[in-house]
Amino acid sequence: MITKLFVKNIEVFAHHGLFPEENKLGQNFIFEVECDVKYKTALFNDNINDSVSYADITQTIVEVTTQSTFNLLERLAGEILKNLFNKFPEITYIKLKINKPAAPIKYHFEECGVMIEAGCVEFLNL
After folding, report:
1. How far apart are CA 69 and CA 51, in angstroms?
2. Is pLDDT at 40 greater than 80 in this prediction?
3. Gap between the terminal Cα atoms of the chain
4. Which of 16, 51, 90, 117 gives 20 to 30 Å between its CA and that of 44?
5. How far is CA 88 from CA 29, 74, 84, 92, in A?
6. Model confidence over 59-110: pLDDT tens digits?
7. Phi/psi class of residue 120: alpha, beta or left (left: φ > 0; alpha: ψ in -120 to 50)?
8. Is 100 among the residues known to form the active site?
9. Spatial distance between the Cα atoms of 100 and 22, rounded to a whole number of angstroms
């Protein structure tokens, strides 16, 4: 059995990008995260201590995004994955999407960014 927790459209203002203006002025980033969680008892006892909180997952994403500055979204994604896997051992797999809606692209686009999927064991052993 696989149980998935997800949070969509987490909007965070931060300073990431290759260009100095992006790092100075900042911009919005939109996150979607889906986590496979290995539960032992949460499905049967209704106790939050046996689960992973959506609020805690979201808080981790916001903290990592706002406390550091990276040139690459891939690097930001890697840092988020590392923090989520380390803080929540119940999470076995993460699918993370980072949308950068104000990316400096001269053409019209709906979304752009990075999407990474990784299992805990493979990621932490890189």
Report:
1. 31
2. no
3. 27
4. 117
5. 23, 21, 6, 9
6. 999 999 999 999 999 999 999 999 999 999 999 999 999 999 988 899 999 9
7. alpha
8. yes
9. 11
pTM over 0.85: yes
3-state secondary structure labels for all residues of the chain: CCEEEEEEEEEEEECCCCCHHHHHHCEEEEEEEEEEECCCCHHHHCCHHHCCCHHHHHHHHHHHHHHCCCCCHHHHHHHHHHHHHHHCCCEEEEEEEEECCCCCCCCCCCCCEEEEEEEHHHHHCC
- Count the neighbouring beta carbons within 10 Å of the beta carbon of residue 106: 5
Looking up tokens 């805690």, which residue turns up? 56
Residue 80, token pair as written in the block: 């988020």
Contact in structure between 16 and 73 (CB atoms under 8 Å): yes
